[in-house]
Amino acid sequence: MSTLLPIFPPEDLLDQPTLTPEAQQAEEEKNKMRRYFEKPEEQLSPTVAHEPVCLYLETTNRCNLLCTTCPRTYEQLEPEADMPWELFTSLVDQYPNIARVVLHGIGEPMLVKDLAERVAYLKARNIYVLFNTNGTVLNAMNGRALIDAGLDELRVSLDAADPDVYQMVRGKDFFSKIVENVRAFTQLQRELNAPKPMVSLWLTGLRETVDQLPNFVRLAHTIGVREVYLQRLVFFDDAEANENSLARASSALFEHTTEREEALIREAESVAAELGILFSASGAVDPGESIRMKQTDNPWSLCRRPWSLMYITANGRVLPCCIAPFSMKGYGAFTLGDATQDTLREIWNGPEYQRLREGLLTSAPPPACTNCGLRWSL
């Protein structure tokens, strides 16, 4: 493996020990929107009186990487497609009061040429907008367009602090290009005094990469990113996983971290505190808590997503959540409707959604949900 990058913080970051009022406001809005899925109502039932508060709109299922943690690398889940503009706008317009829209799924959103226009369409309706990107096409033109469109949050999935480990996880040698893309983007934000989008770096927690964490935090600081997230691996049982996939139980940190691995996480937390980096985990918990076993017989009962959000693929298929494509092979077992044939309101309280919710309220949940809360953060 190559040596890790030397860490030298940008001089203008050293001059900004605290957030500006605008950046602080953006931070508070982001934190508020992260809790959108929590307990939408006290009494849960198979039918829902209220509208969803969040839509996941898979702008594309195309991708330019071959990540060893992604099912898309090993099977075609749906025909390749970008979500047509007409479908995109019709979905948004069906719920004019939607609070939050996430523009990613199985694919790289920034491959969609009119992505900034889609962000602007949502922001004109006062919707909080975010997406995950691999950062490969975050060039000056695309970055400026996203800033001008009003994007609220940009999450960069990097997964490594050096090129060799990056290529092992992400399948291609784009590490240095992405690092420079993100560095240039945060520099552009400072030049424009643009606190949005809030930029964060994400690393998937693998046994093979946990030793990257302390330097991953340092790298974030070097390129002007103030937030780092440890993302829990979504995995298959080893017998079900592709032989080349890292999305397997033996690679997961969750439930059985070693003393050394926990020490590395604590070291990363210490580095983050020293550098003023927010270091968190997906699921709005601290990194250590994210990978520890939760003693419960029915972890799926904590999930509120079927009562608060809808996920629509680029082809119009409605799924329970963004985890579903990673939970089982194929989409057939958890397809809830077709948004090209029925309205979202018809699907939202249709028979498949009712069956899904009813199962989550029992001791026999749908198969795709059985391990939710055990294998990934809620």
Describe the model.
By secondary structure, this protein is of the alpha/beta class. The protein has 13 helices and 10 strands. The chain has helices at about 10-15, 20-35, 85-95, 115-125, 140-150, 165-170, 175-190, 215-220, 260-275, 285-290, 325, 345-350, 350-360; strands spanning about 55, 100, 130-135, 155, 200-205, 225-230, 280, 310, 315-320, 335-340. The chain has a 10-stranded mixed sheet with strand order 7-6-5-4-3-2-1-8-9-10. α8 packs parallel to α9 (about 260-275). The longest helix is centred in the middle third of the chain and has 18 residues, at about 175-190. It is globular. The two termini are about 35 Å apart. The relative contact order is 0.14. Mean pLDDT is about 85; it is low at about 1-15.
Largest sheet, spatial ordering of strands: 7-6-5-4-3-2-1-8-9-10
What is the 3D form? globular
> Could you report the average pLDDT, rounded to the nearest whole number?
84
| Protein structure class | alpha/beta
Strand segment count: 10
In DSSP terms (H or I, runs of 4 or more residues), the helix count works out at 13
Largest sheet: 10 strands, mixed
Tell me the helix content. 25-40%
DSSP strand content? 5-15%
What is the helix/strand order? Answer: HHEHEHEHEHHEHEHEHEEHEHH
- Low-pLDDT stretches are 1-17
Radius of gyration: 20 Å
Ends: how far apart?
34 Å
